[in-house]
């Protein structure tokens, strides 16, 4: 199929998807419903930014944030967007893990987003993003645990009196054992569809150093992807009463659009305002050097 031609002038299309889960289905998570307080607020606040920037948005809150709905929204955007267009996706909820059966992870675990009726595995997410065309810009904001360098051997202990956006390890193993055939098939299907190898961000993430630095995976990614995540691999992303800690600081620095700078300086300012116990991460996939120099949320 011939590549789509860039649009004339500045007629970029911008779509966004905002996912926020204050709970998950106990039926899908072996009795655990993962109560949180601020994830729906996070998603709504990100959707408000998108609306202010002229984006066409989809908002999926808790029970609507199913695997089918999330994948349909991502795939719909991949089909619709052309070179120069923007896809902005945010996730607020629990991060989880399932055992890695295709051995693409150093810690032998695949990281997940805990959607309402089941987990979205990181291999799935990055494979879906790889389907976007060359020249499409993709921004992903993830306020969840297991969103740093995602190579930890043991999860950190949340500070006393706080709510972490982290599916407990014991719950994660029970869920996997109860749904092993489903999650194993997902990994196998993605690997097969990707030609036997999934481009995974872990190698790039492990190279991320000081604030503002980003590593690039040179792989099959044709779109330009920026991902800002809530914490490092030895930390947890904390929930709040109105926003998660990462999202709250992001909104403060954004300051209703008054922020002036690039994605790199935006991340650095957010990280500088966070406590040492939670340091947001930044990495890129594909040819994202020019994208990093743009103003945040620019369409």
Largest sheet: 7 strands, mixed
Number of beta strands = 10
Percentage of residues in helical conformation: 25-40%
How do the SSEs run, as a string of H and E?
EHEHEEEEHEHHHEEHHEH
Q: Measure the end-to-end span.
A: 26 Å
Q: Quote the average pLDDT.
A: 83
Determine Rg (CA atoms, Å): 18 Å
Shape: globular
Q: Please work out how many helical segments DSSP would assign.
A: 9
Which spans have pLDDT < 50 for at least 5 consecutive residues? 147-154, 203-219
Strands in their spatial order, largest beta sheet: 2-1-3-7-9-10-8
Strand content: 15-25%
Would you tell me the structural class of the helices and strands?
A: alpha/beta
Could you explain the architecture of this structure?
With 299 residues, this protein is an alpha/beta fold. The protein has helices at 39-52, 67-80, 122-130, 169-178, 180-193, 202-205, 245-254, 263-272, 289-292, and strands spanning 14-20, 56-61, 86-92, 95-99, 109-115, 118-121, 137-143, 216-217, 224-229, 281-285. A seven-stranded mixed beta sheet has the order 2-1-3-7-9-10-8, with helices on both faces. A three-stranded antiparallel beta sheet has the order 4-5-6. The longest helix is centred in the N-terminal third of the chain and has 14 residues, at 39-52. The chain is globular.
